[in-house]
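Weekly modeling sync, notes
Attendees: S.R. (lead), two postdocs, one rotation student

Agenda item 3: backlog of single-chain predictions. S.R. asked that every request posted to the team notebook include the full sequence so nobody has to chase files. The rotation student volunteered to paste the first one in as an example of the format we agreed on. Action items at the bottom.

Example entry:
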Amino acid sequence: MDTRLLRLWSNCKFAAFVRLLNFVGIFVVALVFAGHAQASALALGELNWNSEKKMLAGEVVYALPRSEENLFVEGDSF
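Predicted structure, as returned to the notebook:
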């Protein structure tokens, strides 16, 4: 095989590998950011264990700030 073609093929494989690494890196950063945001909301008490279970099931959960009125939401189990 011609050395120029071999070099070109090698560069294409390297470029594809770099693109794959870039995609995986962005995906990992997004997962870490989402996990950190969810953990922060749980730590701040804006979400409860039932909200966590709903999120894991894929449901949309709206976080309400905890106050005297909504301290115990229906379905909370302690």
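Discussion: group reviewed the output briefly. The first helix runs from residue 3 to 43.
Action items: rotation student to repeat for the remaining queue; S.R. to check formatting next week.
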